[in-house]
Design goal:
The structure holds 2 protein chains of 2 kinds. By secondary structure, chain A is an all-beta fold. Chain A has no helices and 11 strands. In chain A, the strands form 2 sheets. In chain A, strands 2, 4, 5, 6, 9, 10 and 11 form a 7-stranded mixed sheet that branches. A 4-stranded antiparallel sheet of chain A has the order 1-3-8-7, with no helix packed on it. Chain B is built from no helices and 12 strands. Chain B is globular, with a radius of gyration of 14 Å. The mean pLDDT of chain B is 91. Classes of the chains: A mainly beta, B mainly beta. At the A-B interface, β4, β5, β9 and β10 of A face β6, β10 and β11 of B.
């Protein structure tokens, strides 16, 4: 079974530029999560989708971050314009609604550096 | 609101020593799940264990063991006879039963950096 795929793995941009990250969850997983992990901290949830609907985006900075999950499969997370404090690893995870224990499977992450 | 506290930030041991990583959690839910993840230098989060709030049995898996105590809201992780390959950041996390059947988000602690020296 293929795992969660993310691209790109690394991205360096200047502040005020825009950037987009892509995630392909495990096949059949209805729930998809985007987490932000700042260096030295644990991951923090940005947004959670169930199929193509948003379940939780309470911690998403909506003035600059946006995310979509068209057709309930792949997802894209965008930052526009980027700030220095957005430097972090962006992790995508997915889980199955059939798994009541809510086990989440994580991708390798995208490391973003904003200069 | 749910919260996970990992008071230890960095631990350094010599190979073959035993080491315990502490985790304390806060939640108002009666049904919840606790997790430990390992994050090696490669960056990917590796699932280690999941416990639900109704199962307080301790668990052992090879050199790893977990001690879940609801009375103290703790879910501690012990590595016996540590090895250099155990060097990583370890995260404790909590998820709660959410309404509507949607899978619940994970709330992570800040992580513990474990260094095992040869």
């Amino acid at each position: 079974e293929a795992g969660v795929a993310q691209s790109p793995r690394y991205k360096i941009i200047e502040k005020r530029q825009s950037v987009a990250f892509w995630c392909n969850p495990i096949s059949g997983h209805a729930t998809l999560y985007w987490y932000q992990q700042i260096l030295g901290q644990g991951p923090k949830l940005l947004i959670q989708f169930q199929n193509n609907g948003v379940v939780d985006d309470s911690q998403l900075p909506k003035d600059r971050f946006s995310a979509e999950r068209l057709k309930g499969v792949d997802s894209t997370l965008k930052i526009q314009p980027a700030k220095l404090e957005d430097s972090a690893v962006y992790l995508c995870a997915s889980s199955s609604l059939q798994d009541r224990a809510y086990e989440q499977y994580f991708g390798p992450g995208t490391r973003l550096t904003v200069t | 609101a749910q919260k996970v506290t990992q008071a230890q930030t960095e631990i350094s041991v010599v190979e073959k020593e035993d080491v315990t990583l502490d985790c304390v959690y806060e939640t108002r839910d009666t049904t919840y799940y606790l997790f430990w993840y390992k994050q090696p230098p490669s960056g990917e989060l590796v699932f280690l264990i999941r416990r639900n709030s109704f199962d307080e049995q301790n668990e052992i898996s090879g050199r790893y063991s977990w001690n879940f105590q609801k009375s103290t809201s703790s879910f501690n992780f012990t590595i016996t006879a540590s090895q250099v390959v155990d060097s990583a950041v370890y995260f404790c996390a909590l998820s709660e039963e959410s309404m509507g059947g949607a899978n619940s988000k994970l709330t992570f602690g800040k992580g513990i950096t474990l260094s095992v020296r040869p």
